[in-house]
Structure formats: structure tokens, C-alpha cells
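Long-time lurker, finally posting.

We've been working with Acyl-coenzyme A thioesterase THEM4 (Paenacidovorax caeni) and I want a structural starting point before designing mutants. I don't trust myself to interpret raw outputs, so I'm hoping someone here can both generate the C-alpha cells and explain anything notable. Sequence follows.
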Amino acid sequence: MYAFQDHYPENLSHCYGCGSQNPHGHQIKTEWEGDETVTRFRPEPFHTSVPGFAYGGLIASLIDCHSTASAAAAMYRQEGRSMDSLPAFRFVTGSLHVDFLKPTPIDAELVIRGQVKEIKGRKVVIESQVWARTVMTAKGVVVAVQMPENFGT
Ligand SMILES: CCCCCCCCCCCC(=O)SCCNC(=O)CCNC(=O)[C@H](O)C(C)(C)COP(=O)(O)OP(=O)(O)OC[C@H]1O[C@@H](n2cnc3c(N)ncnc32)[C@H](O)[C@@H]1OP(=O)(O)O
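Top reply, 14 upvotes:
Generated this for you. Predicted structure of Acyl-coenzyme A thioesterase THEM4:
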């Protein structure tokens, strides 16, 4: 699998949620399945909240980084361009809303499915759902915004 995150340059691959260069992070991998974006992640015992269930912050961070990657992929797809082509689209989180619908079991593979709801200017809105086996345990909406040149200054 060659994931969206595999196109990130090394200097932008340190994110706790999605950076391949962060040994302490989730290192999520996201790809297209038709018009949906999909991330699969297996929680570890140290991601526990209530025993037997996953910590909500983990769920939120999975939705977050799944969505920023999906936003970039959606922009490239809209322009009919490869994710390695220039100019690059880099997205950060403007807002993150999560609804926790059911407890998320710690012992199941989580599947995050995203849909592109809006692309407008520098903004992409992604809706996502987190599935554990056959149960949707959380859903989220992310407003991803193209990272400004002067980000952090
Ligand atoms: C491939 C390499 C990967 C590279 C990236 C690898 C790292 C992945 C990151 C993973 C996710 C993260 O954790 S990122 C880290 C957490 N996030 C951050 O630190 C971001 C901090 N915030 C900021 O820097 C800024 O507020 C921005 C960039 C988000 C927005 O500022 P701006 O650039 O001045 O945006 P602005 O022109 O005002 O607005 C542009 C459009 O976005 C909308 N917008 C802006 N902020 C919001 C908001 N909070 N909620 C809703 N909508 C918003 C505006 O209404 C507008 O829509 P309209 O009027 O046009 O309709």
C-alpha cells in the first residue's frame, strides 16, 4: 500500500498522528477506496480508557489525521494531479468535532471512513466515521485548511 502519508516530505513527517518519522506516534496510513478515504488502525493496550475500551483522545487523533490527509488527497484528485506533483497541498486542522456514539473496543481493528463534503478555496471539509467490527462508535467533522507559508510565525 502506498498511502497518502507516504507522499509527505520528511520534514513534515513528524506529526504524532500521521508522521512516518515519529516512532512514538500512530503512523496512520490512509488511501482511497472509491470515493471514500480509509484508515485502518489497531489500538494497543496502552490506548485504554475504561478497561476494555479505547481512549477518546486516540479516536479524535485518528479522525484528525485521517481527515487532514484526506483533504490533501481530495485537492490533488480534484486537480487530477499526483500527490507528488507541485505545488504541494499541505493541510492542518482548523476545527475538529467528534461525537462518541458507543464505547470503542480496544481489541478490534478500527476502520475510519471519510467522505469529502466541501472543497472551497483553501478549505476542505471531511466527515468521518470510526467502525469497530460492525459498530460505528464515533463520527467526526474536520475543517482542514491549507497550511499558510508563514505557519507558526
Ligand atoms: C502533505 C504534507 C502534510 C503536512 C501536514 C502534516 C501534519 C498534519 C497535521 C495533522 C493535523 C494537526 O494536528 S494540525 C495541528 C493543529 N492545527 C493547528 O495548529 C492550526 C492552527 N491554526 C492556524 O494555523 C490557522 O488558524 C489556520 C491555518 C487553520 C487558518 O488560518 P488562515 O490560513 O488565516 O485561514 P483563513 O484564511 O482565515 O480561513 C481560510 C478558510 O478556512 C476557514 N477556517 C479557518 N479556521 C477555521 C476554524 N477554526 N474553523 C472552521 N473554519 C475555519 C475560514 O472560515 C475560511 O473559509 P472560507 O471563508 O474560505 O469558507
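Before you design anything, note these points.
The chain has a mean pLDDT of 96.
The pocket of dodecyl-COA is lined by residues 8, 12, 15, 17-18, 64-65, 68, 72, 90, 92-95, 120-123, 143, 145, 148, 151 (CB under 6 Å).
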